[in-house]
Amino acid sequence: MAADDFGFLDAYAVREIRRALLKALAVPGYQVPYASREMPIARGFGTGGLQLSLSVLLPGDRIKVIDQGADDSVNAVNLRRFIVAACPGVQPVTRTAEATVIQTRHRIPERPLMPGQLMIYQVPYPDPLQIVEPREAERRRMHAEGDYARLWVKLYEDVVRFREVALSNRYPARVHGRYIIDPSPIPRWDLPKLHRSAVPHLFGAGREKKIYAVPPHTAVEPLAFADVPFEVERFRDEQGRRRRCARCQADDTYLDQIPLPGGGSRWQCNDQDACDERLGYPDAR
Hints:
Blueprint: H1 11-26, E1 32-33, H2 47-56, E2 62-67, H3 74-86, E3 91-92, E4 101-105, E5 118-122, H4 136-145, H5 149-162, E6 173-175, E7 179-181, E8 201-205, E9 210-214, E10 220-222, E11 255-259, E12 265-269, H6 272-278
Parallel strand pairs: 2-3, 2-4, 4-5, 5-8
Antiparallel strand pairs: 1-9, 6-7, 6-10, 8-9, 11-12
Helix pairs in contact: 1-2
């Protein structure tokens, strides 16, 4: 099947994105510029991740699209419908274990990923230096020289002011001992899953026109001080005990606090598929 007959993008766009992906995988963490195409969704709603998915999917692949852990959000449902309509022979799935390609907005599945799968991220801001330097030319110089001093100062200021790094997501991490990346707005809970992962992680920022990647089995180390180690979110109650999911009773997953109609709230797994898997996949959530 010709590339221009599959996946919405024309053959030239597919070739360019695939070449950019090869370069990104060869130089872990390096931001590769590319000519981001206009898509039938607004920039900022996942055009970068969508272009990567459309460029790598082949007939027979199974695509899972999640948005903040959910398969049934507006963003996830519409992107999945568009991908399946644009790519004949690609099957939509909601179970992590069945997917060959997973496109995500700000979460990594709780279920460990297996070789043969591919993670694709929708990225709003690809450069971790953006919080300390607004000029792109200067950021490129800083990356080239490995000059991340101002980013370290930002983290130090947080420690002095709050006694911890105040970044709840987009936590910067060093890849393969060289480049520091913005891992997209995934929570800190998910960042350790990138370290030595068995699958490639591909990041696409359509608005910023950048692609970068973390190859399989690559070291990914969150920035941290020797006396202030990196920590993930702690879901504990007033007595200091771990909170459990109200549905599956898990205490080792990322949790959301869900408000109840009559007042109050309950804690529930953010990853719907992981929660359903523990419950044996009931028909009703």
